[in-house]
TrEMBL record:
Domain Plastocyanin-like: 36-148, 162-309, 408-542
Cell compartments where the protein resides: Secreted, Extracellular space, Apoplast
Gene3D superfamilies named in the record: Cupredoxins - blue copper proteins (2.60.40.420)
A biological process from GO: lignin catabolic process
Cellular component annotations (GO), alphabetically ordered: apoplast
One Gene Ontology term of the molecular function aspect: oxidoreductase activity
InterPro entries: Cu-oxidase-like_N, Cu-oxidase_2nd, Cu-oxidase_C, Cu-oxidase_fam, Cu_oxidase_CS, Cu_oxidase_Cu_BS, Cupredoxin, CuRO_1_LCC
CC cofactor note: Binds 4 Cu cations per monomer.
Signal peptide residues on this chain, from the entry's feature table: 1-25
Keyword Methyltransferase: no
Family: Belongs to the multicopper oxidase family.
The protein, known as: Laccase
One Pfam family per UniProt: Cu-oxidase_2
Amino acid sequence: MGSFHASIVIVLLGFLMLVSVPTEAATKKYQFDVVVSNVSRLCHAKPVVTVNGRLPGPTIYAREGDRLIVNVTNYAQYNMTIHWHGVKQLRNGWADGPAYVTQCPIRSGGSYTYHFNVTGQRGTLWWHAHILWLRATVHGAIVIMPEQGVPYPFPQPYQETELILGEWWNADVEKVEQQGNLLGLPPNTSDAHTINGKPGPLFPCPEKHTYALEVESGKTYLLRIINAALNDDLFFAIAGHSMTVVEIDATYCKPFNTSALVIAPGQTTNVLVRADQAPGRYFMATRSFMDIPIPVDNKTATAILQYRGVPTTVVPVMPQLPAPNDTSFVASFSDQLRSLNSPRYPASVPLDVDRRLFYTIGLGVNPCPTCLNGTRLTASLNNITFVLPQVALLQAHYYDMKGVFRLDFPDKPPTSFNYTGTPLTANLGTSLGTRLSRIAFNSTVELVLQDTNLLMVESHPFHLHGYNFFVVGTGIGNFDPAKDPETFNLIDPPERNTVGVPTGGWTAIRFRADNPGVWFMHCHLEVHTSWGLKMAFVVENGDGPEESILPPPMDLPPC
Ligand SMILES: *[C@@H]1O[C@H](CO)[C@@H](O)[C@H](O)[C@H]1NC(C)=O
Ligand SMILES: *[C@@H]1O[C@H](CO)[C@@H](O)[C@H](O)[C@H]1NC(C)=O
Ligand SMILES: *[C@@H]1O[C@H](CO)[C@@H](O)[C@H](O)[C@H]1NC(C)=O
Ligand SMILES: *[C@@H]1O[C@H](CO)[C@@H](O)[C@H](O)[C@H]1NC(C)=O
Ligand SMILES: *[C@@H]1O[C@H](CO)[C@@H](O)[C@H](O)[C@H]1NC(C)=O
Ligand SMILES: *[C@@H]1O[C@H](CO)[C@@H](O)[C@H](O)[C@H]1NC(C)=O
Ligand SMILES: *[C@@H]1O[C@H](CO)[C@@H](O)[C@H](O)[C@H]1NC(C)=O
Ligand SMILES: *[C@@H]1O[C@H](CO)[C@@H](O)[C@H](O)[C@H]1NC(C)=O
Ligand SMILES: *[C@@H]1O[C@H](CO)[C@@H](O)[C@H](O)[C@H]1NC(C)=O
Ligand SMILES: *[C@@H]1O[C@H](CO)[C@@H](O)[C@H](O)[C@H]1NC(C)=O
Ligand SMILES: *[C@@H]1O[C@H](CO)[C@@H](O)[C@H](O)[C@H]1NC(C)=O
Ligand SMILES: *[C@@H]1O[C@H](CO)[C@@H](O)[C@H](O)[C@H]1NC(C)=O
Ligand SMILES: [Cu+2]
């Protein structure tokens, strides 16, 4: 079924007017078969979990207002769930996907059909597995076009394409995760980065797996860039070509030109690129950003911007990426991000705050008698290492099941200290718990995420499910509640679903809690998520008929 929009041409006093009348939303159906496929990269062939045998998986194309029906059938040996990253899932947490948060997993041999509507959103998002480390190979793009007849608020590109940045391990990624957990140490870093699943020709392998984008001289292209890496913030640049950033996390932003960009796991960035250089071959390249001395995959993945007609024997030009530890590039790039805030796409920033939250991000060390050092690395928010339950939190909330979680997640850390002062390396234990924070329906929330020097400082991309939020402020050092709010941008702050908290700094976000449900919030570095850097909000129902959680679907997987 196509999208039903009647275009009525009215000839009036010699003026030709095109009026687009939306009539009915379209329904788009997808079949996702979770299968194990033999994939070969970097001279290594291995069985990996994929959707429909593809890496990256299929792109979901939708139009704002569409209904999506995705039947996920699990033929793999692992339990599976799929998260539609950035889709707001209004009243519909049942389709959100994080395992043991909004649903129990789809077991091997089972199916679950995700039903959701794309309401009031357009742009680039993505989907990924939300269980274990399986999103390393189970991910793909979601492209939401504006409603029929509604143009982009930037020049119409000649063509558009998705660029999915990823990470590849030669070993089985679940073995890597398990080994880290057994030892209590950080798991092995990846062996390569990839662009659309391919590492590019800089890797010494006979099979050259390279993505190439053919362009025509003088034309403009829209690149939808997605960071699907598990653990790495990434820089991205194209040799010789400037990029105009026009959208982040499926919200339009004020356009600006840049020679490179930084993108954290979970984020998306749309850029316009004009093929305005001498016809040739230009590398698009991506490499990690890491501004503390810990092991990281520092290898560069490349793809090729190929001008039509240029022989493929021409050696491509390499772009200049920022230095791997270029914190100031990241700060100034982030500083340029502003919501478009136009009459059609206003930035509805909450100006008054009903609920103020202050969460410290900490790394830690807990006892582990079976681990190599007798300890395991851990992570916490307000000193709580989140423990996933055996049944899903949303069901426990909806059916009022007792004993699954507590609603006493603290609004501030148990003790205040010099958060980003000298490294604290003693007394690094945390308390374990399944503790959630209750938020009143439609209240406005301000959350300050404060990095700490417990063990060490590090940057963390935080993702909130069920909402977009406004990034009203950020800074280095300790957040000062007396002074810092004066500097908040409440006019056109960037609106997104994943934001980086800088190394040894803080980030303040605001959102209106108008979507009832149980919503996960976590660091999008999978290594930290598995160490417990996560929590969930319980947003209560409102009083109105359209202000409560929808009933669960019949095929919701049981625990
Ligand atoms: C996987 O592919 C490699 C080469 O591409 C091949 O050598 C190997 O036999 C395949 N394994 C399976 C289980 O099909
Ligand atoms: C989902 O797909 C599986 C496998 O094809 C099929 O058995 C099942 O009936 C489908 N579910 C729905 C609701 O269509
Ligand atoms: C999606 O929208 C349709 C109306 O177009 C509605 O019937 C359906 O309940 C909605 N589904 C969800 C999950 O919100
Ligand atoms: C992790 O790396 C170490 C050192 O290179 C290696 O011995 C080990 O086998 C790797 N672990 C996995 C699960 O691949
Ligand atoms: C970006 O650069 C192009 C020329 O390369 C220029 O036409 C355009 O105005 C610039 N856009 C912004 C937002 O600065
Ligand atoms: C990348 O990391 C490896 C191992 O940590 C190191 O030996 C190498 O010098 C690094 N390469 C670059 C270009 O920084
Ligand atoms: C970044 O790394 C370079 C090379 O390793 C080093 O010389 C420089 O001091 C580092 N800069 C910062 C700000 O840490
Ligand atoms: C754990 O032990 C290893 C090897 O014995 C050592 O290199 C590492 O620093 C220790 N890590 C911690 C967190 O204590
Ligand atoms: C916090 O620690 C930093 C660095 O160790 C120090 O410069 C600063 O004065 C301390 N702040 C407070 C309030 O003690
Ligand atoms: C965190 O909790 C543990 C266990 O209760 C405690 O030992 C530690 O002092 C706490 N740390 C902080 C920074 O509050
Ligand atoms: C939420 O509160 C705002 C501001 O008071 C109000 O405009 C809006 O109608 C409320 N929304 C709902 C769904 O109650
Ligand atoms: C798969 O999920 C089910 C339901 O939660 C659970 O009982 C089972 O232990 C899980 N299997 C594995 C291998 O984790
Ligand atoms: Cu993190």
